[in-house]
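Before the break, one more example. Copy the sequence into your notebook; we will annotate it together after we see the structure.
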Amino acid sequence: MEVLDKELVDYDPLTIEQIFVKIGVFSGVHLDQLQFNIDLVKETTPFNHTEFVLELVQADFRCRDCGHRWSPVDYLVSCPVCQGHGIDRLAGMELFIDSITVAEEQEVDSGEG
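Here is what the structure looks like once it is written out:
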């Protein structure tokens, strides 16, 4: 929650409706555990009404030798086409706030006028 306080300093926490978080399958973070912890901790913060939407990002690897791209199921891999070990991790390690939804401010008619 400290990260949210720093990143969202320009927003009134009461106007933040949703926070979208991307989490890579190989980030080391488990969605269920993170959601449980968010739900537990957010009740004591100004974000207690905010919905956290967690999205799992699948791995996307590319072989430097042959250019083949694939989505591995485990981290210790070689290219399934050429068995090369020069691998670029294009996706699957993410852990970041992707976007937020902020409520539109509504003007309140004071009845004067």
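The chain has two helices and six strands. The longest strand covers residues 16-24. Try to locate both features in your own notes.
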